């Protein structure tokens, strides 16, 4: 079952972090149709956040057609993202792990790694469009 | 001069996006001590956001000791992040560009690339601690 984690330094609201983590887990094939999300009660006890925050995130995911709440039972994934890229992701992940190890060995801290990634994604996406 | 961009899909507040973009530009050596930030008026006219949003971001950056507002003149960078990794960043950026090109050729969309990056950063950081 997915375990949520909150980054208090990110400037992203806890509600949005939960939504993004479910969306990303679907993209990475870590969540599939029929999988159950942790109950609101479980998330509240693990992360010490307001139950309304969790409910709001789950409602948004339901509104997006990704999960369905079954009264008294729980919230279940109702969509599986395309599997097309899952095999490619394994090799890409290995390449990225090597890149990250090199970046850390070069002395880059996590904020600089994040900055370099965002900057490179943006500049190479612009080139692709041009 | 730095040009801010806002991602309306990110779930991150515009104020936080401006703060992060300045911090990242400092990390990447794109902003240096003495550089001027765009005036609040310029940012408002370019991005169509509330002037209070820009002022709040600039105040937070000033509070963090990264910039200083000079009344009637503008806001200037007062800190330069360590240059230690700037040379390494060039080679790392080239490696990341190759990885991104491969990921896009493999059919990964931008959200999946972001998901794969965040997931790999988290899992490899955990390994480093263990």
TrEMBL record, chains A, B:
The keyword Oxidoreductase does not apply. PROSITE patterns: HTH_GNTR (PS50949). SMART domains: HTH_GNTR. GO terms for molecular function: DNA binding; DNA-binding transcription factor activity. Keywords: DNA-binding, Transcription, Transcription regulation. CDD domains: WHTH_GntR. It holds the Pfam family GntR. The keyword Transmembrane helix does not apply. Residues 12-80 form the HTH gntR-type domain. SUPFAM superfamilies: Winged helix' DNA-binding domain. This is GntR family transcriptional regulator. It comes from Nocardioides luteus.
């Amino acid at each position: 079952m997915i375990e949520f984690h909150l980054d208090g330094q990110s400037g992203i609201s806890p509600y949005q972090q939960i939504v993004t983590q479910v969306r990303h887990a679907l993209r990475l094939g870590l969540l599939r149709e029929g999988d159950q999300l942790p109950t609101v009660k479980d998330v509240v006890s693990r992360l010490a956040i307001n139950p309304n925050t969790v409910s709001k995130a789950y409602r948004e995911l339901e509104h997006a057609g990704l999960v369905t709440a079954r009264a008294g039972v729980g919230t279940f994934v109702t969509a599986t993202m395309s599997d097309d890229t899952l095999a490619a992701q394994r090799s890409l992940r290995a390449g990225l792990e090597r890149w990250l190890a090199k970046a850390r060995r070069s002395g880059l801290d996590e904020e600089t790694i994040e900055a370099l990634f965002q900057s490179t994604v943006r500049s190479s996406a612009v080139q692709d469009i041009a």
